[in-house]
């Protein structure tokens, strides 16, 4: 009898190996989501799963509604704080060059929005969803408010290609949702908070990517362009990271590839900066990106193992060329 019970337990799947159904949070927990992400079978709502993996939200067993409400209120607060109408400020000169001038900040904000818009309107030009003016405006607002609230980084070209897949996945989560939903999922998938949730997820992803976007000894002004002061970031942080990947991982695993790159004067940053800043978004098809990102997010918000993807891609290119 004991042996029979043992056989039954060994043949039945563990809690962590159970399939996760779309829009069914009953089996969701962090370990289960991690395994599903690694195996490319992450269920919808995928945006919610990403938020949990990136530790922006707790697992559904905790008070996920309260946490999500807090994030949404935080975004509303940022928008209100950074959207001041300069005409409402008495005594402020529109021609003032003072750093305290609301009018000066207003003009800088308009310049920053123009810079962001130039990139946003070119995002995934072959996809109808991103040609929609409302979608583009949402992307501009998310990127603008993030850049303004992270002044040590500001806006950098490439960030629009991070926020775009996030926004699209959140849209798809709502689009494919069944009519019958739990009260929790009704709140999670509220259309009125698509922009709020995009900001939350973008901010969570940037916790791991931010270091690859810093440009060294200068930080941007509110307009996103001119230097104002020194930053604590190493001026060559992304280059140092790529050199470390080469020396500590690529060379031991495939010395021939590393030597070939050196003999051709091909530095890691020539391709690696784009790979990192876009999170490999241009190296894979759009349909593959959600699965790849889920795999990456399974390691947590610091994205600690993306160097393995860089090395694997280089070795795979070697195999193709043979």
TrEMBL record:
<protein>
    <recommendedName>
        <fullName>Rab-GAP TBC domain-containing protein</fullName>
    </recommendedName>
</protein>
<dbReference type="GO" id="GO:0005096">
    <property type="term" value="F:GTPase activator activity"/>
</dbReference>
<dbReference type="InterPro" id="IPR000195">
    <property type="entry name" value="Rab-GAP-TBC_dom"/>
</dbReference>
<dbReference type="Pfam" id="PF00566">
    <property type="entry name" value="RabGAP-TBC"/>
</dbReference>
<feature type="domain" description="Rab-GAP TBC">
    <location>
        <begin position="40"/>
        <end position="300"/>
    </location>
</feature>
<keyword id="KW-0343">GTPase activation</keyword>
<dbReference type="GO" id="GO:0005737">
    <property type="term" value="C:cytoplasm"/>
</dbReference>
<dbReference type="InterPro" id="IPR035969">
    <property type="entry name" value="Rab-GAP_TBC_sf"/>
</dbReference>
